[in-house]
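Quick start: load a record and inspect it. Here is Methyl-accepting chemotaxis protein:
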Amino acid sequence: MVSIKALKYLKDLCELQSDIITGGILYLITEGDIFTWRKSSKDFDLNLFHIGEKIDINSVVGKAIKENKTIFENIPRSLYGTRLSTIAEPLVNCEGIAVGAFSIVIPKIHPVAKAFMDFAPIIAEMFPEGSCFILTDLNKIVSIQSSKKFKMPLLKIGDQLKEDFITAKVINSKQPRVEEVDSSVYGVPVLVTGYPLFDEENSYEIVATLCIVIPKQAASNLRNMSSNLENSLTGISAAIQELAASASSIHTNEQQLNHEIKEVINLSEEINEISHFIKKVADETKMLGLNAAIEAARAGEAGKGFGVVAKEIRRLSDQSKGTVPRIKKLTDNIKIKVSESSKKSQSSLSSSQEQAAATEEIAASIEEITSMSEELNKIALEL
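Running the structure step on this input writes:
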């Protein structure tokens, strides 16, 4: 209880303290059933309890006067639109009878909200790309704390909560929420996390929200790079597969060519055998022609015509025999060229085999890198 005689000192003390109290305060003096004096902090003033207004006999002040004792109550948001804590102390006369009341009204602030300006500036700087902490009540943004690296100029203290903003969703669901927002909203991609803050005495009544906004530009860049790398590797892998198919086809063709070259060599050998046979026939034909000429000479005039035939046989034999070296030279040249082609074919065949093997190794390496790229993309998505 406070003596009515101490009112002047009480008012002077309240004047000194009103702007010192963290969170703000409202002092009220009631004489009889009328508010006769009020003093509020600059940061906290309700459009209530005006001088000259009558008190409600069922209010905290009315109870304190009627019961002549100190009354403490928490006032829910539903009554005045904000949570309040009130204390009403009876003002008594010399006989100790309550003739009024001295009351204090202070906003009831969640412990996280009270400590916001203590922890938010410190924690906001702990994120590599910076962060922004946002504190709201059920209707508007109450406080914002941004890091040096990251600011959100589009959001301002006092802004009403929009339905599509995460805090409104947290309030409606009474559950924490996490959302990724692309760069079209805040200029950079961000991760937004909202937490509900519940009444200290009623764990089902949400009274505020704490929102943390973290820029994810590095993660977005990493994700894009990973996606581009994966796409590039997919293209390279497809090209390698086509190259492998081509190498396999070349290898098959080289094998066929090598087989055909061997067949040409065999044919050249057969031609040489035929040339030897022609030479042998020509030699024997020439010998027969020579014998025929001798016999024609012995026959005299009667064998003269047969001598002409024998001479022609020798001439044809000489011509046939003369073509044999030419055929041999040509077949030898064919064998040389075919032998060179065979060596090149063998070399090409070996190279195509090495190419096919190398292509398979490259394809395996590309698959491994692609797998690593997919894993990198998963990591980027989790950042």
